[in-house]
Automatic annotation (TrEMBL):
<feature type="compositionally biased region" description="Acidic residues">
    <location>
        <begin position="44"/>
        <end position="66"/>
    </location>
</feature>
<feature type="signal peptide">
    <location>
        <begin position="1"/>
        <end position="22"/>
    </location>
</feature>
<keyword id="KW-0732">Signal</keyword>
<feature type="domain" description="GerMN">
    <location>
        <begin position="247"/>
        <end position="336"/>
    </location>
</feature>
<dbReference type="InterPro" id="IPR019606">
    <property type="entry name" value="GerMN"/>
</dbReference>
<protein>
    <submittedName>
        <fullName>Sporulation protein</fullName>
    </submittedName>
</protein>
<feature type="region of interest" description="Disordered">
    <location>
        <begin position="35"/>
        <end position="67"/>
    </location>
</feature>
<feature type="domain" description="GerMN">
    <location>
        <begin position="97"/>
        <end position="186"/>
    </location>
</feature>
<dbReference type="Pfam" id="PF10646">
    <property type="entry name" value="Germane"/>
</dbReference>
Length: 355
């Protein structure tokens, strides 16, 4: 689900999907670069001349910098109050989980690398220790942990849980305060039980639910941010227990879109429909859509951003590793680069920058 895990109107949805080409920066893919000849060695001396030797030195410096860092998902709070992962290059360490939590602390080491329009989650001065045993990350917070604002309580719980469960072998989080057992959050008293997991959800949207007792949670991904700084926001919604197929439920919520007034953009156009029940085989789910899935009806391609939302959302479901898309039963479809669309797996790094 990140570092070590292999581990989401009509007109507006189509415009967003087709305009945000290639998902630049989202999954660390980057833009295509033209091949250029290396600079030639220059025989005269000048401080401003870039020689072949200096270029090699610069490349070596970049490689060394990359080798000394590790991409880490930090769940931070954006300026709309959503808990969102941002992937940052942090120094390599043997204590990656502890380092990740330390970078959630306000006025801590994250200050110099904090993305625009995001803020840290934990109160300033909070100290942490992390001990991972079996599938549980045992976290002890210093007394400063309890000095957060009441409205941030659920955000903190979600951010800590989702940040730690990105690591291999961590499925649950157990929290203590100054070495004392903690079965509820210290400010508003939100129950947390013995451990928490991603089952607690994130960025809840229950706006259209009148009785949650007959529902179950699914997490889907919508677009947040603004032009030049878009990113994927996970949102946990409630769907009817009568819908036994979570895959269909996830697709339906992506088509339905976010709740009114959420500052999020829909991932799929309202006309998108599944033409038949999804098929699962060896971790691959195959979805057969109508032509409304196309981001361009003229060129008949499927936007990478639309695919990303699908893949992020569906791979939150247990057992799904990749997503294959068909249109009217035809598997021979392309992306906006004109390349044949193969089954898409979840990226290791989500929201690596603006696009």
């Amino acid at each position: 689900m990140s570092i070590n895990k292999k581990t989401t109107i009509v007109v507006s949805a189509v415009l967003v999907s087709s305009a945000l080409l290639s998902g630049c920066g989202l999954f660390g893919g980057g833009d295509k670069k033209e091949k250029i000849d290396p600079p030639q060695t220059v025989s005269y001396e000048d401080e401003d001349v870039v020689t072949e030797e200096s270029t090699e030195d610069a490349d070596q410096g970049t490689e060394e910098a990359e080798a000394s860092t590790v991409k880490t998902e930090l769940y931070l709070i954006d300026n709309n109050g959503y808990v969102v992962s941002q992937v940052l290059d942090l120094p390599k360490t043997n204590s990656v989980a502890k380092q990740a939590l330390e970078h959630l602390v306000e006025d801590g080491p994250v200050t110099e690398v904090l993305p625009n329009n995001f803020r840290a989650v934990l109160p300033a001065g909070t100290k942490v220790s992390v001990d991972i045993k079996k599938d549980v990350a045992n976290v002890d917070f210093s007394k400063e942990f309890s000095e957060y604002k009441p409205e941030d309580e659920m955000r903190i719980l979600q951010a800590v849980t989702w940040t730690l469960t990105q690591f291999d072998g961590v499925e649950k989080v157990k929290m203590t305060l100054n070495g004392n057992e903690m079965d509820e959050m210290p400010v508003n008293g939100t129950p947390i039980g013995e451990t928490t997991s991603r089952a607690i959800g994130i960025n809840f949207d229950h706006s259209l639910v009148t009785d949650i007792s007959n529902t179950k949670p699914v997490t889907v991904y919508y677009l947040g941010g603004e032009e030049g700084n878009y990113y994927y926001v996970p949102v946990t919604k409630r769907v009817s227990n009568k819908n036994e197929n979570n895959i269909e439920a996830v697709v339906a919520e992506l088509v339905k879109g976010p709740g009114a007034g959420t500052n999020l953009s829909p991932s799929l156009a309202k006309e998108v429909e599944l033409l038949e029940k999804p098929e699962m085989k060896d971790g691959v789910v195959t979805l057969n859509f109508n032509e409304a899935i196309y981001s361009s009806f003229e060129d008949k391609y499927v936007s990478v951003n639309l695919l990303n939302a699908l893949v992020l959302s569906l791979t939150e479901q247990k057992g799904i590793e990749s997503v294959a898309v068909q249109v009217d039963g035809n598997a021979d479809i392309v992306n906006e680069d004109g390349k044949k669309l193969e089954p898409v797996t979840r990226p290791e790094n989500v929201n690596t920058g603006s696009f």
